[in-house]
Design a protein that fits this description.
There is one protein chain. With 142 residues, the chain is of the alpha+beta class. The protein has one domain. Helices cover 51% and strands 24% of the residues. A 5-stranded antiparallel beta sheet has the order 4-3-2-1-5. A hairpin with a 2-residue loop joins β2 and β3. α2 packs across α3 and α3 crosses α4. The longest helix has 24 residues. It starts with a helix and ends in a 7-residue tail after the last helix.
């Protein structure tokens, strides 16, 4: 054992304690949506972390989702991509998420289905612009 082992250990403990105080865990993640594959395995999930909607795919959280409608639209898009790959899925939404998305749609003068269709159209337009920019072509948006 080195002469400075006790001092090094004390310094390490102090650093760890200080870092732990800074990284306080926030509110827990509360799941409000599950996207399951045909075998019942979880493909993606969505829910609230504090007051922010979060989508989790492949163990990675996609935070910064500013609306419950956008969360549902993203989960539906993920389900459609899985279906296109030949992997059937089932999307389960909690009443809380459905109610929040319905209220959001109504505030914008839309039904929930209309709002989700509008969000999907925006996503498709954005993806087309991104593809066109990558290939150097001008997108045809009409």
């Amino acid at each position: 054992m080195s002469r400075n082992a006790k001092a090094k250990r004390a310094a390490r403990r102090k650093r760890e304690a200080k870092a732990g105080a800074v990284r306080r865990p926030g509110a827990p993640f509360v799941a409000h949506a599950q996207l399951l594959d045909g075998a019942g395995a979880l493909v993606a999930a969505g829910g609230l972390h504090g007051s922010e909607w979060v989508m989790v795919v492949a163990g990675r959280a996609l935070d910064g989702i500013d609306s419950p409608g956008l969360l549902i639209a993203m989960l539906r898009h993920t389900a459609a991509r899985c279906e296109a790959e030949g992997r059937p899925t089932t999307l389960r939404l909690s009443p809380v998420l459905e109610r929040a998305a319905t209220e959001e749609a109504a505030a914008g003068g839309h039904s929930l289905d209309g709002w989700l269709a509008l969000l999907e159209a925006e996503r498709a337009e954005h993806a087309e612009k991104k593809r066109a920019a990558a290939s150097g072509a001008v997108p045809n948006l009409h």
